[in-house]
Design goal:
By secondary structure, this protein is α/β, with parallel strands linked by helices. Helix content is 41%, strand content 19%. 44% of the residues are buried.
């Protein structure tokens, strides 16, 4: 299968590219720079903001499947520059959809959305399903909801063969420290590499419970949906298990052998934060047989990667 991945040089995109290569696919990645392009893939320089370059990439690749992962993905940073966010995540998705209509109308498209699209209801009990109401509270969530709805409209109008995911928290090697697992793992790894026996960690709310999964398992679900997913359908990508943020600290203490003490910084607390967010992945499992999880393994791999980097930095 010939596949094209937008955002293929990013955190999730690199994992997806490697999984597709291992599955026998011919993989092309589009992005700004080939420096982070996974070995074995083809690279085409293009951005979501350049419709002509997107069209040329599709025309030259002739993909059977397109995975749309490119986006500005930090919830916290999405409040700082909304214009750039919407230009990339919303108008960029529109540019891709338009290019596919003319250059690859028969290709299957998977658009990765986010759990940030769902409404945050304090009184909610139970997991979020694909039928749960939308109500994003961050600019990032708004941008992903708009992109998802545009993509689903293409499928329902008959223009394109589109599947959309709403993906919950992912972690694993290669994740940026703007995300909580990578931030904590990086701090602990640097302390361990420096020979410390204890570390005080300044944090936000450690009692909030969130649905974490391994990025490696999530990308397997993406490819399974390309093969088995139903046109015009939404699929949650999640474990269905809500873990307290505190568990990340506890697991890192086990992995590192360090004594970790935590101190809550009021500035890191979010007003009106929802105590628990978890998803229902039963539609994904029923359609593809995939069960997404693997949090503990993914966190261990992330910590070991950060530890190796910290030791290398210390040695240099």
């Amino acid at each position: 299968m010939r596949v094209l991945i937008t955002g293929g040089t990013g955190f999730c995109g690199r994992h997806l590219a490697r999984h597709c290569l291992a599955s026998g696919d011919d993989v092309t990645v589009i992005g700004r720079s080939a420096s982070r392009c996974p070995e074995g893939t083809h690279f085409v320089a293009a951005t979501l903001e350049d419709p002509a370059a997107l069209a040329a990439a599709l025309r030259s690749t002739k993909p059977d499947a397109v995975y749309h992962l490119a986006a500005l993905s930090s919830v916290a940073r999405s409040f700082d520059n909304e214009s750039e966010l919407y230009r990339t995540n919303v108008l960029g998705t529109l540019n891709l959809l338009r290019a596919m209509r003319t250059e690859a109308p028969e290709a299957r498209l998977l658009v990765t959305g986010s759990a940030e699209e769902y409404a945050r209801e304090p009184a909610r009990s139970g997991p979020l399903s694909e039928g749960s109401p939308l109500g994003p509270v961050s600019p990032y969530g708004v941008s992903k909801a708009a992109a998802s709805l545009m993509a689903l409209r293409e499928a329902r109008s008959g223009s394109l063969d589109v599947i959309v995911t709403r993906t919950f928290n992912l972690t694993g090697p290669g994740q940026a420290t703007t995300f909580v697992c990578a931030d904590f793992a990086d701090r602990v790894a640097k302390a361990a590499a420096a020979g410390q026996s204890r570390l005080e960690m300044v944090t936000g709310n450690l009692d909030a419970r969130r649905d974490f999964s391994s990025v490696a398992e999530a990308v397997k679900a993406y490819r399974a949906l390309i093969e088995k997913g139903e046109r015009g359908r939404l699929y949650n990508i999640c474990s269905g298990v809500a873990r307290p943020i505190r568990e990340i600290v506890e697991r890192l203490a086990e992995l590192s052998g360090l004594e970790l003490e935590t101190r809550i910084d009021p500035a890191r607390l979010r007003p009106g934060e929802i105590p628990e967010i978890r998803g229902d992945s039963s539609r994904l499992t029923a359609t593809t047989g995939c069960r997404v999880g693997g949090f503990k393994t993914a966190l261990a791999e992330l910590y070991l990667e950060r530890l190796e980097l910290a030791r290398g930095g210390a040695a240099g």
